Amino acid sequence: MIASTAAIPVVRPGDEAAAIAAFASLASFETTHPSAADIEGLAARWPMGTAVYVSAVPSRPPVEQIDAAIRLRGLGFTPVPHLAARNFATSDELDRWLARMSEEAQVHTVLVIGGDREAPAGLFHHAVEAIDSGLLQTHGITAIGIAGYPDGHARISQVELQRALAGKIEAAEQTGLAVHIVTQFAFTAAPIVAWIRRLRDDGFEQPVRVGLAGPASLASLARFARICGVKSSLQGLARNAGLVKHVFGTAAPDELLRALAGEASAGHLGEVTPHFYSFGGLAATARWAAAVAGGRITLDRDEGFSVAPP
């Protein structure tokens, strides 16, 4: 079960490198259709029990998502599949999906989202409708993640996003489900920090897994940013393109991770941990994050850090 994220390990005041490593060690990961090599690469570097979120893509059959969750559980990880409400045509279809996730992959936590499908496949239009259905508890789901959007949403206003977030938290808690928030990825720290502070000011103390784009080519990052509608962060990526680190031949989120680790270790954001989107591949993301968590970093004079290859 993932009812909350772990507390950030205590480090000596002023030891910034140790704070970054401690923050990175609490990471979760996200993948779409991981290969056996991807999962084995993750297993070689991260402990059993690490949460791995398995995204739902409308164009891919649901059985792929179920199979990925089963394989992850088989190697000791905690699979957290995305439940994309708009992908399910009927309550029975959702019921069968939950049954397989529960029985075959021992899933107890799901990330409940509306989904990317333009037109709903059937009954469910919004994430809150799946939360209210009662089907999650029927299949042993005890905790859910819900989506947060520090960089905004391409089709939904900030006011609507905040109202929807509050509604999902209220619906989950009324039915006994623990709640955490998983944010869309961004490339700059300012909108993330401001969003979390607003969240805390509004009285929401739920744990937040902060989305970061794992190491990937600039072209891949730009493509996913356009797909996901993170426009202001895409502009930030363009401004910083000349500053990215190429130790692993890709752009890495070192500046963002360093800034967030500093805010988190100072206690400014409540309970937050990093959540890596593996646009450059799950194994490659795990390798980079493990190097950071292992302290193989050298702080730059400015805002980022370099990672030593294994």
Question: How does this model look, in words?
Answer:
There is one protein chain. With 310 residues, this protein is an alpha/beta fold. The chain has a single domain, classed as TIM Barrel. The protein contains twelve helices and ten strands. The chain has helices at residues 16-24, 36-43, 62-74, 91-105, 127-132, 135-138, 158-174, 189-201, 218-228, 231-239, 254-265, 282-293, and strands spanning 28-31, 51-54, 78-84, 109-113, 143-148, 178-183, 208-213, 272-277, 297-299, 305-307. An eight-stranded parallel beta barrel has the order 1-2-3-4-5-6-7-8, surrounded by four helices. Helix 1 runs antiparallel to helix 12, helix 3 (62-74) runs parallel beside helix 4 and helix 9 (218-228) packs antiparallel against helix 10. The longest helix has 17 residues, at 158-174. The radius of gyration is 18 Å and the shape is globular. It starts with 15 loop residues before the first helix and ends with a strand. The model is unreliable at 241-249 (pLDDT under 50).
Compose a concise summary of this entry.
With 310 residues, the protein is α/β, with parallel strands linked by helices. 42% of the residues lie in helices and 16% in strands. It has helices at residues 16-24, 36-43, 62-74, 91-105, 127-132, 135-138, 158-174, 189-201, 218-228, 231-239, 254-265, 282-293, and strands spanning 28-31, 51-54, 78-84, 109-113, 143-148, 178-183, 208-213, 272-277, 297-299, 305-307.
